[in-house]
C-alpha cells in the first residue's frame, strides 16, 4: 500500500488545483468513475467512461501523426461517440478484430466507421474495458496500458511489450524496395525512449521505429489508423509481388473474472503517464482516491529534476523540457467501501 505521506504529498502538491480543473468524476451507487485529461502541444489524447445496465465502459486513446492535415480526426471521432453508439459498437462480438469482408471493408463497425475517411499518416492507440458484474473484458491496441487491482494486488498489467517482441520478429522478414527514408532493408530502426527507474531516477531504454507503407514510421507495432498506403502503390510499380505492410488494428483481449466482496480497481492511462511512472507507483495508483491524483503525480514528474543514469556514464541532473511533455489521459473505476 502507498504511504499516507505519498498520498498527502500529492494532495498538497502545487499542481493539484491545475490538474483538478482538467478532471471529472461520477458516482453511481458504490461505483466511482473518474477521468483526467491534460493536453500539451499535440493535444491528441482522449478518454471517457459510460455507465450502463448490463456493463459499463472505460476507454482511452492516444493519437499520433500530423502529415495529412487530419491531426485530430481520430481524437474527435472518439469524443463524438454517444453513449448509445458505444454500446452499439461494443455489442458486436468481434468488434476488436482486424477482419475484412469480400469488399475490403472492416467487419467491425467501429473500425469501419474510423476507416471511412481516408488518411495516410494518422493513427491512435485504443484501450477499452467492459465492466460486467462478474468479469472485466479488456481490449487494447498500442501502448496505452490497463491496470487492474484486487485488494491491493495487481492482477493485470496489459502493456505492449510481449506483442512487440512477437511482431518485430515477423516484421524483420519484410523486404523494402523503396529505400527512401529507411536505414534498414526491413524498415526497422533502432531508437530509445525514457524510462523511470524510481520516483527520482530516469534512464533510457532500447526502442525502435517501424516504417510502414503509408510512408511514415511508428514506435509501436499495432494501432488503429494509417489506411492510405501511398508508399505501397509506388512500390507495386516496380514489383507486383510486393506485400502490403500496415499496422494491425486487432486488439489484444484479456478476460478477468471478478470476485465478490473484494476491492477492485481499474486504471487505463496513455503513455504520457507511463513514461514517468513505474511499478514503484502501483501502490499509489491503487490507493489514490480519483484519477486527478494520479494525473497530479505524473505531471509533477514531468516538471521535476531527475537524476539521469545510463550505463557507466556520469550521473547528471536533468529536467525534461516542457515542450517535450507528452499529452496525458487517465480513466479509472473502482468500488467504494
List keywords for this structure.
single chain, 337 residues, alpha+beta, Phosphatase 2c, domain 1, seven-stranded antiparallel β-sheet, six-stranded antiparallel β-sheet, 10 helices
What does the model show?
This protein has 337 residues and is an alpha+beta fold. The protein has a single domain (4-335), classed as Phosphatase 2c, domain 1. 23% of the residues lie in helices and 32% in strands. The protein is built from ten helices and 18 strands. It has helices at 4-11, 16-20, 73-80, 83-90, 109-115, 161-171, 230-238, 271-274, 282-287, 291-303; strands at residues 23-28, 31-38, 45-50, 56-64, 123-124, 126-131, 135-141, 146-150, 153-158, 188-196, 201-212, 216-218, 224-225, 252-257, 264-269, 305-308, 316-319, 328-335. The strands form three sheets. Strands 3, 4, 5, 6, 7, 13 and 14 form a seven-stranded antiparallel sheet that branches. A hairpin with a 2-residue loop joins β8 (146-150) and β9. The longest helix has 13 residues, at 291-303. The two termini are 17 Å apart. The model has no long low-confidence stretch (mean pLDDT 90).
Secondary structure topology:
Elements: H1 4-11, H2 16-20, E1 23-28, E2 31-38, E3 45-50, E4 56-64, H3 73-80, H4 83-90, H5 109-115, E5 123-124, E6 126-131, E7 135-141, E8 146-150, E9 153-158, H6 161-171, E10 188-196, E11 201-212, E12 216-218, E13 224-225, H7 230-238, E14 252-257, E15 264-269, H8 271-274, H9 282-287, H10 291-303, E16 305-308, E17 316-319, E18 328-335
Parallel strand pairs: 11-16
Antiparallel strand pairs: 1-2, 2-18, 3-4, 4-5, 4-6, 5-13, 6-7, 7-14, 8-9, 8-15, 10-11, 11-12, 15-18, 16-17
Amino acid at each position: 500500500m502507498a504511504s499516507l505521506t505519498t498520498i498527502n504529498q500529492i494532495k498538497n502538491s502545487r499542481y493539484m488545483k491545475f490538474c483538478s480543473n482538467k478532471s471529472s468524476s461520477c458516482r453511481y451507487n458504490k461505483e466511482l468513475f473518474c477521468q483526467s485529461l491534460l493536453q500539451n502541444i499535440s493535444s491528441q489524447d482522449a478518454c471517457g467512461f459510460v455507465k450502463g445496465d448490463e456493463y459499463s465502459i472505460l476507454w482511452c486513446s492516444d493519437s499520433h501523426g500530423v502529415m495529412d492535415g487530419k491531426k485530430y480526426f481520430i481524437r474527435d471521432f472518439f469524443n463524438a461517440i454517444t453513449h448509445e453508439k458505444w454500446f452499439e459498437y461494443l455489442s458486436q462480438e468481434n468488434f476488436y478484430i482486424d477482419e475484412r469482408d469480400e469488399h475490403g471493408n472492416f467487419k467491425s463497425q467501429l473500425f469501419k466507421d474510423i476507416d471511412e475517411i481516408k488518411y495516410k499518416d494518422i493513427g491512435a492507440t485504443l484501450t477499452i474495458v467492459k465492466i460486467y458484474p462478474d468479469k472485466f473484458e479488456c481490449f487494447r491496441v498500442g501502448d496505452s496500458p490497463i491496470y487492474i487491482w484486487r485488494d491491493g494486488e495487481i492482477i493485470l498489467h496489459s502493456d505492449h511489450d510481449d506483442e512487440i517482441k512477437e511482431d518485430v520478429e515477423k516484421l524483420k522478414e519484410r523486404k523494402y524496395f523503396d529505400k527512401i527514408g529507411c536505414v534498414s532493408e526491413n524498415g526497422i530502426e533502432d531508437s530509445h525512449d525514457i524510462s523511470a527507474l524510481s520516483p527520482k531516477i530516469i534512464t533510457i531504454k532500447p526502442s525502435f521505429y517501424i516504417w510502414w507503407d503509408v510512408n511514415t514510421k511508428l514506435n509501436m507495432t499495432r494501432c488503429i489508423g494509417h489506411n492510405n498506403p501511398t508508399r505501397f502503390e509506388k512500390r507495386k510499380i516496380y514489383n507486383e509481388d510486393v506485400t502490403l505492410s500496415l499496422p494491425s488494428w486487432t486488439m489484444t483481449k484479456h478476460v478477468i473474472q471478478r470476485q465478490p466482496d473484494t476491492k477492485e480497481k481499474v486504471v487505463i492511462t496513455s503513455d504520457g503517464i507511463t513514461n514517468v511512472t513505474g511499478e514503484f507507483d502501483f501502490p499509489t495508483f491503487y490507493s489514490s482516491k480519483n484519477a486527478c491524483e494520479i494525473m497530479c503525480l505524473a505531471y509533477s514528474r514531468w516538471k521535476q529534476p531527475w537524476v539521469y543514469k545510463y550505463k557507466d556514464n556520469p550521473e547528471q541532473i536533468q529536467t525534461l523540457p516542457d515542450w517535450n511533455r507528452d499529452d496525458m489521459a487517465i480513466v479509472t473505476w473502482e468500488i467504494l467501501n
